[in-house]
Write a structure and sequence with these properties.
- With about 180 residues, the protein is mainly alpha-helical.
- Among the domains are: about 80 residues, no CATH class; about 45 residues.
- Helices cover about 65% and strands about 0% of the residues.
- The chain is built from 7 helices and no strands.
- The longest helix has about 40 residues.
- It is extended.
- The chain starts with a helix and ends in a 22-residue tail after the last helix.
């Protein structure tokens, strides 16, 4: 199983979403959610999304023998430009995220989150979030790598017990961060 940076970043960004009963989306609640999205750094998700698009694009060109080494940089830059241009406004990222927060938080909870993200520790969390995410991915990959033999053994045993021949082991997956394009 491969944990990608964009997936983990999105999960970590939304990790605090509780299953609170949402209340009505008033103009005041909407304004507070938009302010919260600004404070909590949620727009940072466009960077890993851009990396994901770039990796996917480059994967589609894996057999290209005469491709320019500048392609990843151009793809990343243009993807970021498009995403940044559409972050706000109707059908923008903010509007999509607003719907998620509206669904999971009451207005009172949004106000509590605003207080937290406005506090020194909240600001520190936002400032450290990219590094926390990277380090969490690394730690998770190390842990998963250590668990892989036991997982493989148990899966193979269960398949054999079910009368299914286990597939031959494949090469270990590449590191999540190794294919990140350099700027």
């Amino acid at each position: 199983m491969k944990i990608t940076y964009p997936t983990l970043a999105a999960c970590l960004m939304l990790f605090g979403l509780a299953s609170a009963q949402a209340d009505e989306l008033t103009a005041a609640k909407k304004a507070d959610i938009v302010k919260l999205l600004s404070l909590n750094g949620s727009e940072r998700i466009i960077e890993p999304l851009s990396m994901m698009v770039t990796q996917s694009y480059m994967q589609s060109l894996r057999n290209c023998t005469n491709c320019s080494p500048k392609i990843p940089e151009v793809v990343r830059d243009e993807t970021l430009a498009v995403l940044r241009a559409h972050i706000s406004g109707e059908s923008g990222l903010t509007e999509h995220q607003l719907t998620v927060y509206q669904k999971h938080f009451t207005h009172a909870e949004i106000k509590q989150l605003l207080a937290f993200y406005g506090s020194p520790v909240g600001k520190k969390l936002v400032g450290e979030s990219n590094e926390l995410t990277r380090e969490s991915i690394d730690a998770s990959q190390q842990w998963l790598t250590a668990m892989a033999p036991e997982i493989r053994q148990r899966v193979d045993a269960s398949l054999t017990k079910a009368g299914i021949k286990p597939p031959a082991p494949s090469a270990p997956p590449p590191s999540v961060m190794q294919s990140s394009p350099a700027k």
